[in-house]
TrEMBL record:
Its EC number is 5.1.1.7. This is Diaminopimelate epimerase. InterPro entries: DAP_epimerase_AS, DAP_epimerase_DapF. The active site is at residue 71. GO terms for cellular component: cytosol. It catalyses: (2S,6S)-2,6-diaminopimelate = meso-2,6-diaminopimelate. It comes from Helicobacter pullorum. The keyword Isomerase applies. The keyword Amino-acid biosynthesis applies. PANTHER family: DIAMINOPIMELATE EPIMERASE (PTHR31689:SF0), DIAMINOPIMELATE EPIMERASE, CHLOROPLASTIC (PTHR31689). It comes from the Bacteria. It is an enzyme of class 5 (isomerase). Belongs to the diaminopimelate epimerase family. Coiled coil: none annotated.
Length: 248
């Protein structure tokens, strides 16, 4: 089978497409191919399928084989992959389990129009910090903390399982926001999380602590720009193709 690997702001994804309308599950393949030691290694597997109304439909699998409704950086990687292979143009719409996602491609930059954010719960007290639970396609537990590394990985893992959500810590600086994420499905910290940064941005925007648009730097140290317009959140950053390969 033919695959490509892309990196979007530090999140790496393996992508493939099929021209068949099918209900096949790629969960086992995702677990095998995304394994860092025994496979190729990636944060997730993205499968593009044909759709009669939109440019394509996608299925997103986490590295552990579980299905995710949405992935912000994954959507940007999928858009670049579709453009590079001629499956779609520079302006795209595709169907995800979180709804219709728009992607705009310009050179090696890709911007995704995410689904509207929803605050699920406010003022959750954990480890002496105030957290909000926000859905930006998938649920995220977010807080602001100048000491971005104040909680250890086991603390983040505890919160991830207690709230069944990705865990995100935002640290506001003078001209940008630093971001840290522990992702479910990967079950570890990742170099970036698009919907996680969208949740952090929305949380900080409601608190009047950031400007619109706003620059974010995740652990990968790459620049991502978040903005809000008419209630929708937009995520923009560079996408890089790493390689093509055949997996036997």
């Amino acid at each position: 089978m033919f695959f490509s690997k892309y990196s979007a702001s530090g999140n790496d994804f393996i992508l493939m497409h099929t021209f068949r309308y099918n209900e096949d599950s790629y969960s086992n393949l995702a677990k095998q191919i995304c394994h860092r030691q025994e496979g190729i290694g990636a944060d997730g597997l993205i499968v593009l399928k044909p759709h009669r109304e939109y440019d394509f439909e996608w299925e997103f699998y986490n590295a552990d084989g579980s299905v995710a409704e949405m992935c912000g950086n994954g959507s940007r990687a999928a858009g670049m992959y579709a453009r590079d292979l001629g499956l779609a143009g520079n302006s795209q719409k595709f169907l995800s389990k979180a709804g219709v996602i728009g992607v705009e491609i310009e050179g090696d930059w890709a911007e995704s129009a995410l689904s509207k954010a929803e605050v699920l719960k406010k003022d959750i007290c954990e480890f002496g910090k105030n957290w909000w639970l926000i859905n930006t396609g998938v649920p995220h537990l977010v807080c602001e903390d100048l000491e971005i590394m104040g909680l250890n990985k086991e603390d983040l893992r505890f919160l991830r399982h207690k709230y069944n959500a990705n865990i995100n810590i935002a640290s506001c600086r003078e001209d940008r926001v630093l971001a840290r994420t522990f992702e479910r499905g990967v079950e570890d910290e990742t170099l970036a999380c698009g919907t996680g940064m969208a949740a952090m941005f929305y949380y900080l925007l409601l608190a009047n602590k950031v400007k619109n648009p706003c620059l974010f730097n995740p652990a990968s140290k790459e620049d991502l720009y978040l903005r809000e317009e008419n209630g929708k959140l937009y995520l923009k950053g560079k996408v890089r193709k790493i390689c093509d390969f055949i997996y036997l």
